[in-house]
Amino acid sequence: MAGITRKRGMKEQLSVKHLLGIKDLTVSDIQLIFDTASNFKDVINRPIKKVPSLRDITIANLFFENSTRTRLSFELAEKRLSADIINFSASSSSVSKGETLIDTVNNILAMKVDMVVMRHPKPGAAIFLSKHVDCKIINAGDGTHEHPTQALLDAFSIRERTGTLKGVKVVIIGDIMHSRVALSNIFCLKKMGAEVMVCGPVTLIPKYISELGVKVENDLSKALNWCDVANVLRIQLERQDIRYFPSLREYVMMYGINKRILDKLKKKIILMHPGPINRGVELSSDAADSGHSIILQQVENGVAVRMAVMYLLAGRIN
User: Fold this and answer.
1) CATH assignment of the domain containing 14
2) Closest Cα partner for 146 from 125, 162, 169?
3) Which residue has the higher pLDDT, 11 or 104?
4) Sequence-separated (6 or more) residues with CB below 8 Å from residue 182
5) How far is the CA of 272 from the CAs of 46, 197, 288, in angstroms?
6) Which of 19, 50, 85, 225 is most buried when burial is the number of CB atoms within 10 A of its CB?
7) What residues make up the domain containing 258?
8) Structure pTM?
9) Would you say residue 309 has pLDDT above 80?
C-alpha cells in the first residue's frame, strides 16, 4: 500500500489494511490519522471544499442498522474526496429476503467497489467480512463491540481543545455496558496517554471494565470534579432487554448533567456527546448548548477524521 507524504518529506502508511477497531491501531497509526485529519480540516473550511484525492475510488456504504449522523458524515467525507458512492440499506435489499452478508457484499464488489463502510448490529461483523472479501473495510459500528471512527474523532476533538491527550483526565458517563463508543474511546484514549474513568449505575458498568486500566466511579459529582473532559453517552434503551434502572426519572436525578451542576464545579470542563442527545435525560439543553460543549465541533471533526481514514486506506500520496 502506498504511503502519504508528510511535511518532513517522509512517506508513512497505516499498519493495517482495514479499520476494524481501535485495538488494531498503533500509536503511530492514530497520530498519522490525526495529522492527516488536520490537513483535511483545513480543506473543508475553504470556499471550495472538494479535493480529487479519491476520484477513481468507489465506496459502498452498507448500513444494516439505522444511522443518521455516522452515515451522513461518511457520505459527506466521501463526496469531499470526490469518490463514487453506492448507498445500501438492508431494509430495502435482498438481505430482507434471506441473502447472506457475504453474498450481499460480493454482489456489490462485482460492481468493482474498492472500499466498504459497514454498520452492522452483530459484534465482529466487520472482522468476519474482512476475512472473506477482497476490499478495504471500515467498521462504522458493529453491535456493542467497537465504533473506531467515533473514538478517533472524539480523541481528535479533545486534542484540538487541550493541545494534547497525554495526562488528560476523561470520564465516560452513562450506558457503558451497551456502548461501542465507550470501548473504542477507552482503547484510543489509553493508547494516547490519557487517564480514563467510567461513571454510571452499577448495573450499566461491565464487571470486566477495570481490567482495561480505567477507574470506576458511581458518583457523578466525584467523577465531574476529577475530570478535564466528560464524554456523555446516550442511554441505549433499544439494546436493553431487561430493566437496568428503576426509571428514566431516577437516572436523570442521579446522572443527568445540567448547567447548574457544571457551574458548581471548581474548574471548567469540556463536555462531549457522540449523539443523538436525549435532551432532558443525560444532558439538559442548557448544558448541551453551553460554553462547556464541543458537541458541534465533534460533528465537524468527524468529517475530517473519516476523510483521513479513507484517504490513508486507499493508499494515496499527497
Assistant:
1) 3.40.50.1370
2) 125
3) 104
4) 172, 176, 198, 233
5) 26, 14, 8
6) 19
7) 148-298
8) 0.91
9) yes
